[in-house]
């Protein structure tokens, strides 16, 4: 609670009587002070000169005085105050001086240590001067009384000096306490205003400002509040703009994702068809591969058969040539037999003629000749039959030989064609094997592509859910910052 100067003066007047009583400053001490007042004039001047010389040489104290006039003025006021003390009257004038001194010290920020040190210098000088003067005046007869008197003088002087220090320092401390309480009060008031302003900002009112009084009482907090408000305002604006952009972006992304999902589903269907087609193609090519392998095997067997047939035909052709040669030999023999039969018939005929000419004696020979002629006729007929058959066989053999040769030529052509077909079938089989491997690879890749596309579709659907959640969060964020009036 703030106390006025008059109230302080009244309070000190009330409390000083207790201090005077405790210190034992009564009428006798007041008489001592009155007596010392006339003696201490020159001593006090010397002590104050010595003190302010020390002040002037001390940077911590010299900076309180702008010039020598200001220091001289302070010295005169301090001498007047001591004269008031030495008057022994500790009334309102004294209390007002004490309040003024304590208040001034608190105002300029003079630490009590320097005030106490200053009093120590003054008392040291005064005591030394009084002691020296008393030593000069003391007589041997009244030495004890003189020392007793000096002791009382010095004791009284020290008590009133300490009383003055007590009162000045208490005023100094009271002033600091008052200023601290006032600062706390002002600070609390400023904090209350700033707190209310922050609450308004928290409620979305970004137009709130702090008045000049708050700015003066709490400049750092005011600056921090303004920075906070500006920062929040900037963040709110950015969040509002960003949330709008995020909302638009997520909506656009959601539409794009829906399109992608549709395209991906279509791709999955198409890839499924491709996979099924490649599977069918793989099965078909595998079947064709098996058939081409079987065809290649059959062609190889056919090639072997044609080679064997060609060999057999060669053997048959050789056999036909041998048969033809044998039939030629038989024909030659038959011709020879036919010639012999003709000659035998002529001989038998001649024998019959000779037998008929000889008559009865030649009858037996005629019979034999007749038999020989008949045998010759039969032989000739048999030879003619054999010859006819040989001619037929020869014609057949020639026809068979021609057929065999033709068949041989055909088999050679077939063998060449079979070889060509076998080579072509081998090439086809190789290509079919390559196609089979390619179809298997395509089927595997299309299956992998189908899996990847299906996984992509699933991820895209999850992305849709994420976009929806992001949109909801963006809307929530936008609704949160929409209450701020930036």
Structure description:
The protein is mainly α. It has two domains: about 5-190, Globins (Globin-like, Orthogonal Bundle); about 235-480, Helix Hairpins, CATH 1.10.287.950. Helix content is about 90%, strand content about 0%. Helix 2 (about 25-55) packs across helix 6 (about 110-135) and helix 9 (about 220-360) runs antiparallel to helix 10.
What key attributes describe this structure?
486 residues, mainly alpha, Globin-like, Helix Hairpins, 10 helices
Short description:
The chain has 486 residues and is an all-alpha fold. The chain is 91% helix and 0% strand.
How many distinct helices? 10
Assembly annotation: single chain
- What is the CATH level 1 assignment of the largest domain? Mainly Alpha
The helix-and-strand class reads mainly alpha
Give the CATH H-level superfamily of the largest domain.
Methyl-accepting chemotaxis protein
The tally of structural domains comes to: 2
Query: In percent, how helical is the residue content?
Result: over 70%
| CATH architecture title of the largest domain | Orthogonal Bundle
* SSE string, helices as H and strands as E: HHHHHHHHHH
User: Which residues form runs of ≥5 with pLDDT under 50?
Assistant: none
- Tell me about the biggest sheet? none
Integer-rounded radius of gyration: 77 Å
Q: What is the CATH topology of the largest domain?
A: Helix Hairpins
How far apart are the first and last residues' alpha carbons, in Å? Answer: 41 Å
**Strand element count:** 0
Tell me the strand percentage band.
under 5%
Mean pLDDT: 79
């Amino acid at each position: 609670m703030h106390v006025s100067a008059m109230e302080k003066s009244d309070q000190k007047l009330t409390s000083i009587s207790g201090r005077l009583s405790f210190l034992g400053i009564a009428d006798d001490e007041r008489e001592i002070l009155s007596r010392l007042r006339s003696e201490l004039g020159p001593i006090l001047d010397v002590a104050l000169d010595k003190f302010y010389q020390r002040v002037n040489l001390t940077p911590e104290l010299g900076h309180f005085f702008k010039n020598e006039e200001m220091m001289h003025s302070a010295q005169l006021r301090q001498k007047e105050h001591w004269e008031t003390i030495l008057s022994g009257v500790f009334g309102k004038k004294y209390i007002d001086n004490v309040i003024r001194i304590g208040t001034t010290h608190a105002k300029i920020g003079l630490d009590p240590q320097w005030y106490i040190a200053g009093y120590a210098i003054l008392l040291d000088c005064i005591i030394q001067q009084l002691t020296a003067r008393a030593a000069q005046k003391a007589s041997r007869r009244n030495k004890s009384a003189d020392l007793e008197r000096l002791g009382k003088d010095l004791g009284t002087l020290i008590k009133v000096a300490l009383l003055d220090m007590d009162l000045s320092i208490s005023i100094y401390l009271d002033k600091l306490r008052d200023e601290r309480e006032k600062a706390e009060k002002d600070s609390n008031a400023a904090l209350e205003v700033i707190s209310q302003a922050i609450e308004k900002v928290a409620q979305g009112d970004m137009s709130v400002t702090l008045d000049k009084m708050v700015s003066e009482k709490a400049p750092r907090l005011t600056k921090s509040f303004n920075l906070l408000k500006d920062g929040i305002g900037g963040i709110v604006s950015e969040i509002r703009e960003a949330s709008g952009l995020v909302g638009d972006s997520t909506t656009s992304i959601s539409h794009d994702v829906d399109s992608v999902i549709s395209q991906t589903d279509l791709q999955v269907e198409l890839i499924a068809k491709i996979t099924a087609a490649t599977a069918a193609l793989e099965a078909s090519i595998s079947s064709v591969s098996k058939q081409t392998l079987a065809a290649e095997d059959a062609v190889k067997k056919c090639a072997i058969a044609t080679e064997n047939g060609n060999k057999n035909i060669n053997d048959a052709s050789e056999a036909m040539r041998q048969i033809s040669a044998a039939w030629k030999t038989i024909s030659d023999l038959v011709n020879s037999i036919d010639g012999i039969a003709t000659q035998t018939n002529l001989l038998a005929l001649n024998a019959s003629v000779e037998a008929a000419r000889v008559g009865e004696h030649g009858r037996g020979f005629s019979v034999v000749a007749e038999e020989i002629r008949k045998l010759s006729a039969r032989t000739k007929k048999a030879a003619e039959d054999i010859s006819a058959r040989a001619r037929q066989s020869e014609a057949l053999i020639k026809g068979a030989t021609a057929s065999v040769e033709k068949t041989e030529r055909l088999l050679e052509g077939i063998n060449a064609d079979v070889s060509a077909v076998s080579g072509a079938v081998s090439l086809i089989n190789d290509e079919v094997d390559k196609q089979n491997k390619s179809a298997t690879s395509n089927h595997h890749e299309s299956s992998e592509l189908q899996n990847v596309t299906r996984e992509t579709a699933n991820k895209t659907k999850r992305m849709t859910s994420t976009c929806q959640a992001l949109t909801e969060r963006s809307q929530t964020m936008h609704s949160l910052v929409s209450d701020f009036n930036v």
